Structures
1.
Amino acid sequence: MNYLLVGVGGVIGSLLRYYLGVFTHSWWAYDFPLGTLIINLIGSFVLGWLTTHIIKMKLLHPSILAGIGTGIIGSFTTFSTFSVETVTLIQHGLWLFALLYVVLSLFGGLLMSWLGYKVGNHAARNLQRKEEHTS
């Protein structure tokens, strides 16, 4: 069952990445790869939130979590595209954009993961408190 859910999640995540990339390119005509940056930052936040709130609260079956985390988020985010886009910026002599992209991706991804973790922990604590008060 895990394989099926991860596969279906992979299709969903890759389609989301494709459509967000197309949407971003429709209004962003600059050399900086903003679409991939946005995708990876969103994915970092969602995975940070998912691994704290949903898992701690045991709200979903582990197979569904695998489908969401590994399938959807795993195929939505992309390290290989980030790497190729960075090399392309360097090959075109856009060293400042390449450096900015690497720094924003690395530290932005870490920040978004941390924020997702914090939001997930906060939501889990609030849900636990509500359950304690209703018991």
2.
Amino acid sequence: MRKILVVVGLFLLFSLPVINAQANQEIQIDSINKPLFKPFIERYILDELKSLRRENLELNKQVSEKIAQAKLESSDRAINYTTSTINNIFYIITAAASLLVLLGWKSLSDIKKTIKKDTSSKIQHLTADYERRLEVIEKQAKVRSEIIVDTQNKISVTNSLHSLWMRAGIEKSEEEKISIYDEILEINPNDIEAMTYKADALLEIGEVRWALNLVNAAIEKDNKYALAFWQRACAYAQLEKEVEAIKDLEKAIELSETFVDEVGKEIHFDKLKNNKRFKAIVNS
């Protein structure tokens, strides 16, 4: 019994430091403010990143190997296809040569002659076709050249006529105007406008019958030109042919109503002022 008590006493004696240490540890754990597991999280993330990097490298390696393998297989197929094609061509050539021999083309000389004949025929055909096309092109070029020359001539004539009309417009002398109108009629004999304006200038210098002949020629070329009838009416009025003058005056007004305002101002109609029909026209 005594021994048991001694053992229990010794156990309690040695147990007290352990109990105090555990109590102190609980106090220290409770007094911790920051988590102690944060470094372990960082370590875990780094390990995961390393693992992902290794997997990525391994994946790139596998993809590169597969691409290289695919290219190698493609090259092999292309080489095999080329080889097969060449072999087929040789087979075809051999078969064709054998067929030619069987059909009676027994020598290379016959083949050369046939090829030469066919080539000559094709060359002749191509040459003839080229000559026909060249002839068509030459004709088209000639026509276009003629059109260009004709257009240039027309432009030159138009410029010359324009210059002459400009001169006639600013010229004050009736004789000079007549000379200019003659130049215009020399370039274009059918210019009825030039004929009519020349007739007007002739009336101004008293050449009535000459003017009448000109406007008659203009009306024969164009019986719808109002100014020609107006000038002929002026000529008839100067010749005291009132009936003809009134008739042409009415025709001019019918073709162009702008002449109505000019009737009373025209000095060549002074001899018609007592004519009833003329007065009716003026007062209309």
3.
Amino acid sequence: MARNNHRGRQLKDWYDCFSQLSQNEREGIDFRRIAVERRSKLAVVAPHAGEIEPHTSIIARMIAGEKLSLYLFEGLRPHRDHCELHITSEKFDEPSAAAIVSGADTVLGIHGRADKGDGATTWVGGLDFQRRDKVVAALLKAEFSAVIRQPGESLAGAAPKNICNRGKTHAGIQLEIPRSLRDQLAGDFEKLSKFAHAIGVGVGATESG
């Protein structure tokens, strides 16, 4: 499958799996994989990081800190279309990601969404309904806007094969963070720290207070 065969497909993801992507894209030039296995019960993953969904890398790193397992798949070249390196969460099968996810009890997926008229509200989904609800409550308490995404709604992270639901419990949490908020978090360390702390409290990885 030649690279130029994909040109013009702006709305559909170019690749359905990592093997397709790796045959056509150059590691270290087009993309980078970062996998930090800390054998934690909770793993933080950002499968569309770097230039794919900007600033999800820094948000995921802040949440993971030095204690939680972390996985990032980063697009390295700016100005490429979202679809060019985006493998949907249900099909994301990069081997080092699969290893980290399968070794964790629960997975927290960090994603970016378009503002679509609301650049402040984080959508929180996934099949771990208890932690999902606690994350929303913790974000609201920290004075961030957040809503629950129910199964059946778009970007709800409710598919069993979604990477956030592939941990040992088969139920994880997914964050869809709007672009405007991601830009703010990337430019304001104090706000980023506050956001990450709230997420940590919600998933039970950080003490409240």
